[in-house]
Structures
1.
Amino acid sequence: MNPPNSPANAEQAPKVIPIEAQDAAVEVSLYEVRKKIYPRAVTGIFATWRWILVWATQLVFYGLCWLPWNGRQAVLFHLVERKFYIFGAVFWPQDVVYLTIILILSAFGLFLFTAVAGRLWCGYACPQTVYTEIFMWIEMKIEGDRAKRMKLDQQPMSARKFGLKFSKQAAWIAVSLWTGFTFVGYFTPIRELASEVLAFTLGPWETFWVLFYGFATYGNAGYMREQVCKYMCPYARFQGVMFDPDTLVITYDTERGEPRGSRRKGVDPRSVSKGDCVDCGICVQVCPTGIDIRKGLQYECIGCAACIDGCDQVMDKMGYQRGLIRYTTENALKKHWGSKEILRHVMRPRIMLYTGLMGLVIIAFIWSLATRQPLKVNVIRDRSTLAREVEGGLMENVYRLQIINTSEQTRKFTVTVSGMPSIVLASDSEVVVDPASTRSMTVGVRAPEDAGKHGSNEIYFDVTATDDSKVHVHEKSTFLLP
């Protein structure tokens, strides 16, 4: 038997681990430390389309609020006046149904485009993508390309580095504040807003929203970038259920590309037992979310197709066929379909359903706008004044008519009443309403006591424009007989 302190027992005895070491061994970080992404600039057909969408969306956003129309702003959602001006149309709170239709169209459009070709909205037209593209362009112009930016961030602070960083921040802040100012300019007349800014008399709410929206633009596009797409945007989470095997998505052709590896330019990959992928990493370097598309479809992919442009450039340099990374479908990749077969499978039942529903909603929307009356009438019986007897043995009820002229021209309206024998108006039957304004009028309506049953009787007010009989509203109300 070995003594207690013998070497044999020392080897068998359990090792005592200090508490500090034990804590360190089980310590697990619940949050991933973000690694800054330095996207590489890329050119190509998809990059061109992204910039076309950047220019188109920003010309509309920054320019439309300055466009005059009939002596006012062409597009203005005037919250104080509770009127929405969209070119020649004026919408009131009662027209909320049109907002509902627009939201329905947006939902169906998102479903349709996603089912056809994945995250087209995210990759080309989403404000987060658009402003990130603008901010990255500013960063590249001031700090240089990807390699220069990485090298600059690794250097200690110096006068040159401070100057570059300060210039970039100043440009970002200027764009952000102008964006916030423009955003508020769609809810407060932008020329009035500009005058208040220049006179330093901007109201507290306008100031708050300019700074809030500017800060959101600055933070999301300047710093958070891919974090918004990966962790904050709900679309990234449920996009998977909207895809099917015939949805066009950005895909790496594993069969053609593997096994990957480097080789000299012009070398036939089969002669060195490799695939077309040279493992250059360009597809990862150009990705704004920092993913490797060669690992398959990932929810972080926003569908910007920068990896396609980058890979095509490498294939051109190597003398290989383009399309190692391309838009294709799961079925097309497995069954080696060509473009004709892919397009033939685009018009599948769900696509036809989405298209049909969108078409019906659009037709209903256009018809509703085309037949929309530029006149609204609300009739409220005066509850403070009960039915009363007046001269001639007639009974009188008093009503308050609210006439809304939604057109942008002054109009005169004639008011008539019907629904009971010998019923007449006991007040002025004409009223003039200013453009895009509301006019209230109190009218008395009289009828013989034996003109109807005791209690409530249906009557109708007809309000007609004197210059156009088609502008007409037939509104129901009640007449009380004691």
2.
Amino acid sequence: MPPGVTSHMTTIGFIGSGFIGSAVARAAVDHGYDVVMSNSRGPETLTELIAELGSHARAATALEAAEAGDWVVVTTPLSAIATLPVEALAGKIVVDTNNYYWERDGRIAELDDETSTVSELLQRKLPTSKVAKGFNHIAAADINTDGTPTGTPDRRALATASDSQEAADLVLAFYDEIGFDGVNVGPLADSWRVQRDRPAYVTRQNADELRANLAKTERVAA
């Protein structure tokens, strides 16, 4: 595809504008997307970030970001899932960047005993959305520095997982666009393979190395 020509939808909504959300938004703006940023404290607290991101970014409420996004990135602590605007996200692809940190989130039995995953909890909360895992096993700072062109030898790879092929394909295409190879782990039930403390978590790996790390991952209760 010629430089500057993109095939994606126009606007990404962000619910959560912390380190990961801000980094993904930077990458998106750099590749021609519009972004609508929100957080739990209100649009007026995002002035500095919006100024940095430039004219393709604006601040909004979480509801407005959900409504404006052709697809939406949810990048909030687990406790905030309960406040998500379910109806506004209906029918949309929702990318879940979250990880379970019991020290922050409190103990959640089905995550402790590994009978469920973070993204499955989000999918349950958003039954009419298409949830896909994304950006949960890369340090925020690396999102804007480690990307390289398609075909670069030893290109860094990132994983996704989804029960929706459409959602997985969108995440994989976005990864490629902003500089990363993508590996589809499979359904949301398999997204534990890139969760915290697993071999694929927050390590620099190419696609073959990522697949090897996914394959050797064992499911053990926390």
3.
Amino acid sequence: MFSMIHPDYEAYAEAHTSAETDVLYQLNRETNLKVMQPRMLSGHLQGKILEMISCMLQPSQILEIGTYTGYSAIALCKGLQENGELHTIEINPEHENMAATYFNKAGLSQKIKQYIGDALAIIPAIDLIFDLVFIDADKENYTAYFEMVLPKTRKGGFIIADNVLWSGKIFTEPLDNDTETKGIIDFNNAIKKDSRVEKLLLPVRDGLMIMRKL
């Protein structure tokens, strides 16, 4: 994962942050050894941020768009209420088994519901109101995901979007075929003007946009 933080600062932050659980450490390692684009993993520092936010909110329903190998889902589950659920959507079926294996290792199989397919088609079919939403999928659809999940987020609930600094590409004019950079820039600009949410762009790792529904 690209990080906007100086490597020395990030190493110091990780050294002074509670360690990953054994399951998350194993998942982190296996993802880096076996899966293409392991930089997509949330990792230690960002995972702990997501975990802390979840613990503060104590949500009963969480929606995640972009499971990858399951690291962020496990972190987000830390704050779930006893009967709470996390619904996680992944478009790539190759990641399903690894994520399911680690959900089981973490004792979360009964709390996590996995969906494989296009999130734009799946989200409307999930008839729930969410306390917390985490968006970490294809960047060109961030604005569409936000508009789709906002009505499904309770008042005072939170939506978090990952990679909003996009390796610094947001500071340059994107190429005509760079739909992901255009998607992130358009999303950031739309959120900046959106009066329906209070927002904080947190410059940690590749950027987290934290939004509270008003």
